[in-house]
Amino acid sequence: MKHFIKLGTLVLFITLVAAASAWAQTSIIGKWKTIDDETNEPKSIVQIFEKDGKYYGKIVKLFRKPGEDPNPICDDCKDDDDRKNQPITGMEIIRDLEKGGDKYKDGTILDPKDGKIYDCKLWVEDGTLKVRGYIAFFYRTQTWHPVAE
Asked: Which of 9, 67, 96, 125 is the most exposed place for a label (fewest CB within 10 A)?
């Protein structure tokens, strides 16, 4: 009888861990570390959240090197963009994503480095977040890593 109770507890534990892992691997909500494409070094932490049925992401931390402006602004953003000349830390760079199956799409992403806005699609793959910015058939996909809370 003791073996059945231990086995039942083990099965329950494994089921709960598997369920938690499955949810963690499909949700984009949370904090993600971005990686610079050129240097392969951490660039920022982006927090993704849901608001009114759509998904958004804002920069909550920048990793700056000595000598770099610790609080840069988006001076290259377009004049008609409400983020023009605003601090990059705290800036909403992902806007209006909608959930469609396993992907989040039909939104936009801003590259505050050059002020360009791209169509955007996000999905979780192997515990990482795939972030694709594109214009027509041209795209670039980055891999962002989860940040433990």
From this structure: 67
**Domain containing residue 73: CATH number:** 2.40.128.520
Residue 128 carries which side chain, given as an amino acid letter?
T
> Structure tokens of 138?
């041209």
Q: Could you state, in chain order, the average pLDDT of each consecutive group of 10 residues for the chain (149 residues)?
A: 51 40 67 92 97 97 94 95 97 97 96 95 97 94 93
Helices (H) and strands (E) in the chain, counts: 1, 8
DSSP notation for 108-144: EEEETTTTEEEEEEEEEETTEEEEEEEETTEEEEEEE
Number of domains in the chain: 1
